[in-house]
Amino acid sequence: MAQNLIARHLVDLDSPVSQAMRYASNGGKGLRAFLVLESARLHGIGSSRAGFAAAAIEALHAYSLVHDDLPCMDDDDMRRGQPTVHRRWDEATAVLAGDALQSLAFQFLVLCDCPAGAKLTLIGRFAAAAGIRGMVGGQEMDIAAERAAQPLTLDEITCLQAGKTGALIRWSAEAGAVMAGENHSPLGRYGEELGLAFQIWDDVLDVEGDAETVGKAVGKDDAAGKATFVSHLGLDGAKRRAAELVEAACDALSVYGNEAETLREAARFVISRRK
Amino acid sequence: MAQNLIARHLVDLDSPVSQAMRYASNGGKGLRAFLVLESARLHGIGSSRAGFAAAAIEALHAYSLVHDDLPCMDDDDMRRGQPTVHRRWDEATAVLAGDALQSLAFQFLVLCDCPAGAKLTLIGRFAAAAGIRGMVGGQEMDIAAERAAQPLTLDEITCLQAGKTGALIRWSAEAGAVMAGENHSPLGRYGEELGLAFQIWDDVLDVEGDAETVGKAVGKDDAAGKATFVSHLGLDGAKRRAAELVEAACDALSVYGNEAETLREAARFVISRRK
Questions:
Q1: Residue A127's closest CA among A167, A185, A186, A73?
Q2: How many angstroms away from the CA of A19 is the closest CA of chain B?
Q3: How do residues B66-109 score in pLDDT, each as one tens digit?
Q4: Which DSSP state fits B152?
Q5: Distance between A201 CA and the closest CA of chain B, angstroms
Q6: A Pfam family name for this chain (chains A, B) (predicted)?
């Protein structure tokens, strides 16, 4: 659905940048959109009301991948089983498509259906999670670590990931509560644990996965001598840690009872996925 | 003031990306922030209430300059009399600083002081003006034109500039009216005429200005054989057209009487400036 809203917004455009925006929004797991919609459902908010919030987080996520893949960043050729945007088009198109996807995310947030005050909280938290104290800050630490002589400690990696992927996964999990006017919800804790488990599992897949299934290059971290959860904890230790986090994430949802079973399943999926 | 709010937001950070965000926000003319504050004053909204809207537009403008200067875009070495961000740091830092400045712009908008409904209108229009149907769309046309065999027609340049610089200058001029709950204001017309005059004058400065005063390379358009307002209208014709637009912009403000004199002076400044 998130992809549909993005495609619908761009329907009358066919410039390379608009094509690249659509292209970059396709083929993902849709985890973040799923979290938004489930979190909304838990608070009695249907998918037609929360759809734009789900589309917003997928647009923002797509932008972050397009920019992270750039030659000056992680320099990746493949993403979701397809050439990255700068390989399929060029770097200028990739920079602009990412930029416009970020703007589009905020346009979508304004359109989602909840009271104005709740919507402003949603937008403010989204912007904070995306910026220098959230996703961009984490990406900066990641790039710096690749160029540094000293590998990161486990605490540093945890802090990096809390920004790079954690902040927006947490936002997604909390979105429904915020839309319903609940600014402090157990979903925050759930999102935080889940986000970290998600990233640990990404490190596991970089070791255990095959590029075709994962849809992007694997083994990159090890080849680069990069410190990861796996290099610190070992493969089994990393899997154990991820499982503990998923358990804690599920426990955080106890107040919602069986209604939250789908979110618990999603958490378990995160540490069983092959891509 | 806009610079101060950006600096204050980043006060406890000193990573290269946060340094680059501050650096990129310094030394501009502050035209857009000025328009926001004057537009607000005309509607009885003081600078303490509109300050975050002014900071938002300057953060967004700074991001657009950092990305436009990248090697894959306009490949510029100097901006506002200083090395561009990717020259002073590197490309990754420039991409990330621009990305985080865009997020910061939206954080600031959420903080500005007006009723929630008006603020959402302000945010929605801002996001639209920044995106593929506004600034990014204009920048895409500009990059495509540089690579195309055929120079652009005058209509095409006008359309390009309406997106690239016009949409956000218009937003700035209207911001105070929107904050006051007026969604259709003569300031929209004023902003549109002013934005186009501003861009025509940029083309004039590219021919007449010297690099030291202007603060960036000049003569680039002519060297690249690029179609501009000057190449179509001639130097005198372009100046005449800019003056007509400024007159129309000033006329659009008649309903505000003498109260709008500062905005009229700003419009006249736009076509007398040397940088």
A1: A167
A2: 11
A3: 999 999 999 999 999 999 999 999 999 999 999 999 999 999 99
A4: P
A5: 25
A6: polyprenyl_synt
